[in-house]
Amino acid sequence: MQELFIPVTGMAPDDVSVSAWFKQPGDAIAAGEVVAVIETSKAQLEITSESAGVLGAHLVQVDQEVSPGTVIARVLGKDEADESAEDVPSPSAVTGPPVETSERAQGGIGGIPVLVDGAVGPGSAAGDRPHQLSPRQRRLAAEQAQARAEPEHPALDVPEPPVGNPVPPPPAHPALAAAGSTEASPSDRAAIRHRQAISAAVSRSWQEIPHFTVTRELRVDGLVAAVADLRSVLSTVTLTDLLLRAVALSFIEREGRSDVDLGLAVATERGVSIPVVRNVAQLDLVQLVRARRAAVERAKDGRLHEDDTRSPVTTLSNLGAVGVDQFTGVVPYGQTCLVTVGRAAPRPVVENGRLAVATTMQATLNLDHRSWDGLHAGMLLARIAGVIARPALLAPLGPPVTGVTEMEA
Q1: Greatest distance between any 2 Cα atoms in the chain
Q2: What is the pLDDT of residue 248?
Q3: Model confidence over 152-207: pLDDT tens digits?
Q4: SS3 for 294?
């Protein structure tokens, strides 16, 4: 028997509901098949089955609000009895406040109480009776134990206007302007919820994380030239792809592993979203470009993937394409670091005591001081600079060829 449950995403969903069931009780399910779609204030996420079997009862109805970790259905194996119907909760049981039974629960994951100590309250699919989390749920919770997370778009500091010289406020987002109107469209209402979620996440992160920043100017002549060369064989490669790999490679020693997942800040119509690109350091360039483009498409379509339920090591935000030279941001919840980069442009530098012109980029580490010191931040920036200065590290097109092909034979 496999339990299908609401994952705890790095996007920290506040209002979660099942927006559609693709399978009905008694339907045959194939491994990897989509069973339902859940919706948060930010995006949609497909719930898939890891194993083949028969779907049990729906434990949650369409549009019914639930908490992360809630079991919504079970996939039954051969000769397994369907006891799911006994667990079908009433609407009041699903939407009631979660019961916090331990210090771990008070913190929760992603800002949502997730009771990994074994008990769930009325916010669970089991109603008021105790329910033991499955191994898969525990594994996901453990994966995100430090992710009380709502990764969000880095916000720029806006100076207060001088006294006596008031500055008119910027025009409101069209969706926010329609907030009080009965004519607001569903897309406008979704945008409003998204902006509200951004506001809550950024405010909480800024209040609770002791931020500091470290900036370094990076020499990127070779990086820019490498992108131009690589486009002759892969037209869709971008500077962001190589920056993602450079950041991932720079974190290997600190993390003690090579399977480094990175978040990527993506601008969408509803605001900025942060999908996750997995195993960035291990992908060849073709795979990396494909993964980055897929992440951007998911963010713009408002549809999350299982990869996006993981907490990345850090997030990259690149505003160079819109002419920004340098900026700082808010560390996403569940992470300890945010990398922000500006545009690559010709700038004066000193070489061998003489003034010259080189292509440079300003990179800033936005850090949680509880996990980072300035020395370690400076060392990481030095490592990023060193990796970027060696473009050959950033552009593997695939694994080395071993043996001979049939044609050569």
Answers
A1: 83
A2: 97
A3: 444 333 344 444 444 445 445 554 454 445 566 766 766 676 677 777 778 888 88
A4: helix
Helix residue ranges, H only, 148-284: 174-177, 186-208, 221-230, 239-255
Exposure string of 18-30, with b = 16+ CB inside 10 Å and e = fewer, is beebebeeeeebe
Residue range 365-393: mean pLDDT, rounded: 95
Inter-axis angle of helices 221-230 and 239-255, to 10 degrees?
120
Residues 305-356: tens digit of each pLDDT = 777 877 899 999 999 999 999 999 999 888 999 999 999 999 999 999 999 9
> What's residue 334's pLDDT?
81
Q: How far apart are CA 39 and CA 15, in angstroms?
A: 8
And the tokens for 343? 């545009």
Which of left, alpha, beta for 264 (phi over 0: left; psi -120 to 50: alpha)? beta
* pLDDT at 41 (0 to 100): 62
Following DSSP, what letter does each residue of 22-57 receive, concatenated? SS-TT-EE-TT-EEEEEE-SS-EEEEE-SS-EEE--
**DSSP one-letter code for 398:** S
Alpha-carbon dihedral of residues 363, 143, 97, 195, nearest 10 degrees? Answer: 20
Size (the chain), residues = 409
Which pair of tokens denotes residue 69? 């970790």
Q: In the numeric block, which tokens belong to residue 176?
A: 């926010």
Give the global pTM. 0.62
Strands 34-39 and 44-48: antiparallel
* Termini Cα distance of the chain: 49
Domains and CATH numbers, the chain: 2-143 (2.40.50.100), 186-393 (3.30.559.10)
**H or E element that contains 65:** strand 65-66
Question: Tokens representing 201?
Answer: 């996440």
Spatial distance between the Cα atoms of 407 and 409, rounded to a whole number of angstroms: 5
- For 43-94, how does the pLDDT look when each residue is reduced to its tens digit (9 = 90+)? 678 888 888 999 999 999 988 888 777 889 999 988 787 765 555 544 444 4
Distances (CA, A) of 242 to 239, 251, 279, 380, 388: 5, 14, 14, 17, 8
Rounded Cα distance between 219 and 84, Å, is: 60
Identity of the residue numbered 326: Q
Residues contacting 65, CB < 8 A, separation 6+: 15, 16, 17, 94, 95
Q: Give CA–CA dist 89/70, Å, rounded.
A: 11
Cα of 302 vs its chain's centroid, Å: 12
